[in-house]
Specification:
The chain is α+β, with helices and mostly antiparallel strands and about 900 residues long. Helix content is about 40%, strand content about 20%. It is built from 26 helices and 32 strands. It has an 8-stranded mixed beta sheet with strand order 6-5-9-3-2-12-15-14, with no helix packed on it. The protein has a 5-stranded mixed beta sheet with strand order 17-18-19-21-20, covered by helices on one side. The chain has a 4-stranded antiparallel beta sheet with strand order 10-11-16-13, with no helix packed on it. Strand 14 and strand 15 form a beta hairpin. Helix 2 crosses helix 3, helix 3 crosses helix 5 and helix 11 runs parallel beside helix 15. The model has no long low-confidence stretch (mean pLDDT about 95). The structure holds phenylalanine (PHE) and zinc ion.
């Protein structure tokens, strides 16, 4: 498998030797071949350190090159070389016009990179390196060019022809063809190019920008989805307004378009003026989409829109800088959601995602810094690390600078680099220049992988009224870096008195507190910069309870030996929503660990009274935000529990957690039922934050109550779930009830419900995906057979990534099935990876990542996982899967 191992290094970066000033594309769609004529106005780059007369363009083996012309003259074969996928033009003058004519076959492109066909429409996905599948080009993010695109196609089948920028011309041609010409005035790299040709309907809206410009907003979808566009349009308008108000960023074209496509590798893509979305990430209506999907869609619409500045106007110099646009934009969309809905709930969701998936990545063979130093296939680095940890890093800069200086920094960044392709160093420099705060040590966050642990100890001196807090940091070695330098990070904290009130804080030596937000009321932000540091607070009149890492102010593991009393106290008194929830979570994790050891010794697990009291207090408190209550009483997921264990025994985690569920339901049955009833009886369907929170809470209660049915009742709570299902009120309630009912390991109950559900919704691809996911991700053993049968279901299509994710992705998430001790789950996933890798390497590699994370599993499972990895390594693999598999196997040898 060595032919695949060509590595690209950050240290080898060179500015391009040529500049493509303008790119004129003429794309003629035909049944068998699509022809692409690219007319490029090229000149040598005076800034290049390696001047050359050889222009090297990237392409792909699937392109058929027909002709090459320079300044209007056909080039003889001796003037260029076509080797594999690379086209080199010899002896180029200072400035010239290069025209290539190529033939491609988008209808055969199942990798979904470049120009491809999804259902009846043609569409593109060019990030990261898809443009080279369309034509020969300088396919790198620092090659910015002004694009003009002419598209022609048969008019009846493809009445809608779209590309970036503004429409300039359109008309009819002979033979039932028509054409459209689009011009994008903003220079952009090829990865932001997009075009669409299809039979689509349009939903319109308008947004007037802060300076009074009218922007047309258009969403294009297949006709049967036209009723599912409202939420995306509303989300878009809210995002546009928010970006003006919070970042001072105005939209720059007169038209903003979104197109929904069914076959898409990721969530969505921020192509200039023409965002292309996975249908599932844009279409919604309450009957078919849950509240969680509505929220996700709003976040993604906002994310892609925000890229117009953080990504498009200011783009990346090279793909190592991916977090420059992704980390910053995820941070921006999280802020948007926090401002628009509940900030505390959003923070809890983000931290849960980070700690469950990013911490796992950081501890596995694919660990990489948010700015990786090398890659084999860049597609593998569209990772939770680059995205979510990248967002945390921007968030830490915000915390260190405070609101005003952070805004000053972002203004400087956008102003200084508008129209440029830059690096994460440029981003940090703008933040530091604007604020006067030294961020040089902070930059280690960009170059060092791994999750730091903050070990904190404290001591109270009652005679001198002093409280000492000692903070140590350490970060485990990762493949790219054995010995880590200390990070600079903000530790937000407060000291609570016996009533739970925040004490006024005075630091003996306040050198280590800087910035203008650092004394916010009575909470402060400590600058942690050393391997070990001590802070002394003066005038502390009683033994305080420390509230540490408020708002999860840094992406670290906090190691402080909280007593159970302290946690119970924080869980009821802490004003910081995150810390309050975190205290609950710690108590629930400790209790689950006790349940696990009880199960391990086949003894009975007894839930502690204080924990019951704590959970009860949340359930009965009607003044609390119901969404927050749902978070407070939910058990940590099996995946997060696994993250907290040194050795992972998935079966024990499952049985321990189930025992906890049952114990909580038994102890709090009447409170859970009362809470369910209270939240269920809320009249007409609405999507206010409160109504959404009430649905989340009631479905949490219903899930607990149904744990009781399996033991001591005859289906009393099952009946409530069935009634809720039968109401068919909205997909949040229907989906939750169905999920509960089919999770009960009772096929007599599940089979007819699943059949009925499918019957009702078979015409809706989004709901069919939920139907697949519910069955394939059910949290009960013995699923594999059913999952394999579903691969033969009429509605399954291995070429559609959403279906693959719903079936195979969901199966992997069901830990007890994926990690079945006989290795059947691993073998199944191995089979699927090999099948998928033949045509969609990006999706195949995504499924291979979980197989590589064998390190903390039981020895038998480790061996079985490695066996599958070795089996994969013997096959002919794509670069994508090769990189994931080889890094995993290498990690077995250290
Ligand atoms: N850039 C896209 C985003 O907004 C993600 C993406 C990457 C989409 C690669 C498709 C392919 O995050
Ligand atoms: Zn993005």
């Amino acid at each position: 498998m060595t032919q695949n191992s060509q590595v690209t290094y950050l240290k080898d970066y060179q500015v391009p030797s040529f500049i493509i000033e303008t790119t004129d594309l003429d794309i003629r769609i035909g049944d068998e071949y699509t022809s692409v004529v690219a007319r490029l106005k090229v000149r040598r780059n005076s800034a290049s350190s390696e001047p050359s007369s050889e222009l090297v363009l990237q392409g792909s083996k699937d392109i058929k090159l027909q002709e090459v012309m320079m300044n209007g003259l056909i080039l003889d074969k001796s003037n260029y070389d076509l080797e594999g996928s690379v086209l080199s033009i010899h002896q180029c003058p200072e400035a010239f016009e290069l025209t290539t004519e190529c033939l491609i076959q988008p209808q055969l492109n199942a990798s979904l990179e470049g120009l491809y066909k999804s259902g009846g429409m043609y569409c593109t996905q060019c990030e990261a390196e898809g443009f080279r599948n369309i034509t020969y080009y300088l396919d790198r993010p620092d090659a910015l060019s002004v694009f003009t695109t002419r598209i022609s196609a048969p008019k009846v089948s493809y009445p809608i022809l779209l590309s970036n920028g503004n429409p300039v011309e359109q008309g009819d041609l002979d033979n039932g063809e028509h054409f459209a010409v689009w011009h994008d005035p903003f220079p952009k790299p090829a990865y932001l190019f997009a075009m669409v040709a299809g039979n689509l309907v349009r939903q319109d809206d308008v947004f007037t920008t802060v300076s009074g410009r009218k922007v047309d907003l258009q969403i294009f979808v297949e006709a049967h989805n036209s009723h599912k566009c409202d939420h995306a349009l509303e989300s878009l308008k809210r995002s546009m307004l928010w970006d003006e108000q919070v970042y001072g960023r105005e939209y720059d074209l007169d038209l903003f378009m979104i197109v929904a496509v069914d076959d898409f590798n990721m969530g969505a893509m921020e192509n200039k003026g023409l965002n292309i979305f996975n249908s599932d990430c844009v279409l919604a209506d309450p009957a078919t989409s849950s509240d969680a999907m509505f929220e996700r869609i709003e976040g993604i619409v906002a994310h892609e829109y925000f890229h117009n500045w953080s990504g498009n106007r200011v783009t990346c110099r090279d793909w190592f800088q991916l977090s420059l646009k992704e980390g910053f934009t995820v941070y921006r969309d999280s802020q948007y959601t926090a401002d628009t809905y509940s900030a505390a709930v959003k923070r809890i969701d983000d931290v849960t995602l980070l700690r469950t998936h990013q911490f796992a990545e950081d501890a596995g063979p694919m660990a990489h810094p948010i700015r990786p130093a090398s890659y084999i296939e860049i597609n593998n680095f569209y990772s939770v690390t680059v995205y979510e940890k990248g967002a945390e890093v921007v968030g830490m800069i915000h915390t260190l600078l405070g609101d005003a200086l952070f805004r000053k920094g972002s203004d400087l960044y956008f102003g200084r680099h508008d129209g440029q392709a830059v690096t994460t160093d440029d981003f940090v420099a703008a933040m530091s220049d604007a604020s006067g705060i030294d961020l040089s040590q902070f930059k280690h966050w960009y170059s060092q992988a791994g999750t730091p642990t903050l070990a904190i100890t404290d001591a109270y001196d009652a005679t001198n009224n002093e409280y000492r807090l000692t903070v140590g940091q350490s970060t485990p070695a990762t493949a790219e870096c054995q010995k880590k330098l200390p990070f600079h990070l903000p530790l937000r904290m407060a000291l609570l008195d016996t009533n739970g009130l925040e004490m006024p804080l005075t630091l003996r030596d306040d050198d280590s507190v800087q910035g203008d937000n650092l004394l916010l009321g009575n909470s402060c932000v400590l600058n942690i910069t050393q391997a070990q540091q001590t802070f002394v607070f003066e005038g502390v009149m009683e033994q305080p309870t420390p509230s540490l890492l408020r708002g999860f102010s840094a992406p670290v593991k906090l190691d402080y030996a909280y007593t159970q009393e302290q946690l119970l106290f924080l869980a009821s008194k802490d004003q910081d929503g995150f810390c309050r929830w975190e205290a609950c979570q710690r108590l629930l994790i400790e209790a689950t660990e006790l349940a696990m050891s009880a199960m391990n010794q086949s003894s009975h697990y007894q839930l502690g009274d204080s924990l019951v009291t704590m959970l009860r207090a949340s359930l009965v408190d009607e003044t609390l935000d119901p969404a927050m209550v749902a978070k407070l009483v939910q058990l940590p997921s099996e995946a997060y529990l696994a993250e907290t264990q040194t050795t992972v025994d998935v079966d024990l985690i499952h049985t321990g957690r189930e025992a906890m569920r049952l114990a909580i339901a038994t102890a709090l049955e009447s409170e859970l039922l009362a809470c369910y009833n209270r939240c269920h009886d809320i009249g007409l369907f609405s999507q206010t934050g409160k109504a959404i929170g009430q649905r989340a809470l009631k479905n949490t209660c219903l899930s607990y109550l149904n744990a009781l049915d399996s033991v001591q009742y005859q289906g009393q709570y099952q009946t409530i779930a069935r009634d809720q299902y039968a109401l068919q009120a909205n997909m949040t309630d229907v989906g939750a009830a169905l999920h509960i009912l089919i999770g009960q390991n009772n096929s007599e109950l599940a089979a007819p419900l699943l059949a009925e559900f499918y019957q009702r919704w078979q015409g809706d691809a989004q709901v069919v995906c939920q139907w697949f996911a519910m069955q394939c991700g059910a949290n009960r053993p013995g699923l594999l057979k059913q999952v394999q049968d579903l691969l033969d279901h009429d509605a399954f299509d291995i070429r559609n990534p959403n279906k693959v994710r719903s079936v195979v992705g969901s199966f992997i998430r069901s830990a007890i099935n994926f990690h079945a001790v006989d290795g059947s789950g691993y073998a199944f996933v191995g089979d699927m990876i090999l099948k998928l890798d033949n045509f969609n390497p990006m999706i195949a590699a995504g499924l291979a990542k979980p197989l590589g994370r064998f390190k903390r599993h039981t020895p038998q499972r480790q061996a079985l996982m490695q066996q599958q990895l070795r089996r994969l390594s013997e096959a002919q693999l794509s670069k994508d899967v090769f990189e994931v598999v080889s890094r995993a196997l290498d990690s077995a040898n250290v």
